[in-house]
Amino acid sequence: LKSFNPVYRVVMLGPAGVGKSALTDQFMTSEYIGPTDNTSIDTEEEKIITVQLDGEESTLSFIDPEDDEVDLDETKVDAYIVVFSSNDRNSFDVAVETLHQLREELATDKAIILVANKIDLARKRKIDIEEARSTALKYDCKYAETSAALNHHVDELLVGILSQIRLKQNPE
Ligand code: GDP
Ligand code: MG
């Protein structure tokens, strides 16, 4: 008997231009995508894939809002991906503010991954790994560095978010 397969909802957060849509697009082409085809129900702001990990299939819905005015307190959210651009200090400040809102004001214990995107722009880098990592630690988040442009570490981010969601659902 096949067990009930819930849809995990993941919200992409971060100011315009950091690469939220580029990352979401790369998720849609991941090697971890399972055989189930859900593309017919995709919209511009919500994309659904089935991911095969550790012999188990999970359905993930990525919400990629166009504007910055996102209602963070969505009860049906399972995880947040907070993206900043590694070459843009302002976007990092926005990410820190978002982490503060999520953990301190909303007091959520949902999975959060802080993502430094655009690490291919290495010579323009403004936020070093130590600063970003310690910020993630402070807010009890995982940390990832990606390049959506080069599809670098994007699969790891996809697997990481699903692993975090599963851990929260099923501790041990
Ligand atoms: P969004 O507003 O957060 O959805 O950002 P987009 O995904 O639309 O990306 C904004 C711009 O940054 C686009 O021109 C992308 O091609 C570019 N971009 C996204 N990810 C990367 C990356 O990893 N490296 C570089 N160099 N450019 C990127
Ligand atoms: Mg976008």
UniProtKB/TrEMBL annotation:
Annotated protein name in UniProt: Rad and Gem related GTP binding protein 1
Superkingdom field: Eukaryota
Membrane-spanning residues: none
Species of origin: Mytilus galloprovincialis (Mediterranean mussel)
Membership in a protein family: Belongs to the small GTPase superfamily. RGK family.
Taxonomic classification: Eukaryota, Metazoa, Spiralia, Lophotrochozoa, Mollusca
